[in-house]
TrEMBL record:
Name of the protein described by the UniProt record: Response regulator receiver domain-containing protein
GO terms (BP aspect): phosphorelay signal transduction system
Database matches in Pfam families: Response_reg
Domain of life: Bacteria
Keyword Ribosomal protein: no
SUPFAM superfamilies xref list: CheY-like (SSF52172)
Ranges of residues in domain Response regulatory: 8-122
InterPro entries in UniProt: Bact_response_regulator (IPR050595), CheY-like_superfamily (IPR011006), Sig_transdc_resp-reg_receiver (IPR001789)
PROSITE patterns membership: RESPONSE_REGULATORY
SMART domains noted in UniProt: REC
Coiled-coil ranges from the UniProt annotation: none
Keyword tRNA processing: no
Length: 155
């Protein structure tokens, strides 16, 4: 059994209800969460002295200030090894940064899928990276027409 109690996951979504649902699911698995209502709030937080890189960032794609892919790119500019779960109900959206995400969840999703993704991130942290096939098999990347995946810790 994986111990998640010391892990922190950051959630970025403009929909408070969705953020709370994610937070409750993640808390049920023993992780702590920090919630951010916009990508710009999160990017501002990254410049704070108390900022600490999370186990993963869960981000929606469609947000008013900035889309999730551009947000992911900006975070990766500051922290190239940051892991992301991208959540969307529209996997057909094309974007040049689409392949930066480690994992994908397509709405509606099963809470156990989210737990599995978090466990994979813990394994990644423990082992300093995941086999590319391991990360690719266990998520919804196929729905997004993404076959190539590379763990950011393997770069």
């Amino acid at each position: 059994m994986v111990n998640l109690e010391r892990s922190v996951v950051h959630i970025v979504d403009d929909d408070e209800v969705i953020m709370e649902i994610f937070s409750e699911i993640i808390h049920d698995f023993g992780c702590r969460t920090l919630l951010f209502s916009s990508p710009t709030h999160y990017l501002g937080y990254m410049n704070e002295p108390d900022y600490s890189s999370p186990l993963a960032i869960i981000s929606d794609v469609r947000m008013p200030e900035m889309n999730g892919y551009d947000f992911m790119h900006q975070v990766r500019q500051l922290n190239p090894f940051q892991k992301f779960v991208v959540v969307t109900g529209s996997p057909e959206i094309e974007h040049k940064y689409k392949n930066l995400a480690c994992m994908y969840l397509c709405k509606p999703f099963n809470p156990d899928s989210l737990k599995h993704h978090i466990c994979l991130f813990l394994q990644c942290d423990k082992n300093c990276g995941l086999d590319n096939a391991e990360g690719r098999i266990h998520d919804d990347r196929i729905l997004f027409n993404l076959n190539k995946w590379s763990c950011p810790n393997n770069k």
